[in-house]
Amino acid sequence: MQSDKQETIVIHSDRPHNESQSVSPPIFQTTTYAADTAEEFVEMATRPHHPQFYTRYGNPNSAQAESIIADLEGAESALVAATGMGAITTAVMTLVNSGDHIVAQESLYAGTLSLLEKLLPRYGVEVTFVDQANVAAFEAALRPNTRLIITETPSNPLMKLTDLRAIAAMAQARNITTIADNTFATPVNQRPIELAIDLVVHSATKYLGGHADLMAGVVAGKREMLERVWNTLIILGATLNGFDSWLLVRGLRTLPLRVQKHNDNAAAIAQFLAAHPQVDAVHYPGLETHPQYSLAKTQMHGFGGMLSFQVRGGYAATDRFMSGLKLIARAASLGGIHSLIVHPAAMWAGYFSEQGLLEKGILPNLVRLSVGIEDADDLVADIGTALDGIN
Ligand SMILES: Cc1ncc(COP(=O)(O)O)c(C=O)c1O
To answer: Hey, what domains does the chain have and what are their CATH numbers?
Structure first.
């Protein structure tokens, strides 16, 4: 039975890739597979992305995760990788050659920025960065040799949005490939391929895995393009192993349930923070005060579990707030069942000057919260007590 309901997809879309009778798929903890005949071996060795040839080329557990993710994203095909950065680097390296130009939004995950700013220029690829909220700036930055547009929405940590529909239409008219990092939104809240974006990438380390216990990445899109990405993946070697693919499938089973709870909890916390005298500003696309709220409503199906806010006071007051939290842990990463918080001005102090941080909109009193699936009242109480304890 085929279903387009995400709750059914996450439980059943892997079935054609599970040849055993076990309800939970077995883990293929092997590097290689035996063939009975020369013909069979030739088929295993030459069919692209064969799940049972050599694990750098594919694995049945990876094929299961890929079929679920492809159906969730509404993509023809998907490919898992060892990390989100493995997926992003592999996709980008597939699509550009020396002499090409990329247009990318300024606000991107730090690893993606490093790829574009530090690695690609060494191979003769130029990048222009633009404000993600300004569609005209993307268009103005295009050159005859622009091959790729890279977006990420909502972005980290200020929760700014990129108008994917507008960017995709502009790029399609010029035969330029588009990539959207859908990590923050998840395919439950946003499906870029439905908006005509070519490739979706994820850090599956975050919501798709969902339990802060695995590293993985995803590229999803058209079958022909994914086959090219796979050819790069087996060269770069950013392969996801069988056990982590199995864990990813296990995480995906509850993605729609978890994301619903993340959305509800984040909305409750955003409302609470917006009314709190110890808070200067809240950045959450589900608040009517978000400058792109109308875009959020037309582009997203839910507003997500990520938000950031500014504590009244400076760096020290913000640090006292962070230290006052009892349930919510001070930890990097996001998108898991546990609520986690970071103070970006502290986390990035070693990478950027104070001025550099300010230019990126990272004020000393900004905190980023990845809202978990604990009880909403308990989370609100934890935040409220820590805010009240600042002074
Ligand atoms: C939006 C986004 N994209 C990509 C990545 C990179 O993913 P990974 O750490 O799995 O390589 C991250 C990691 O934090 C991220 O937040």
So the answer is: 6-252 (3.40.640.10), 256-388 (3.90.1150.10)
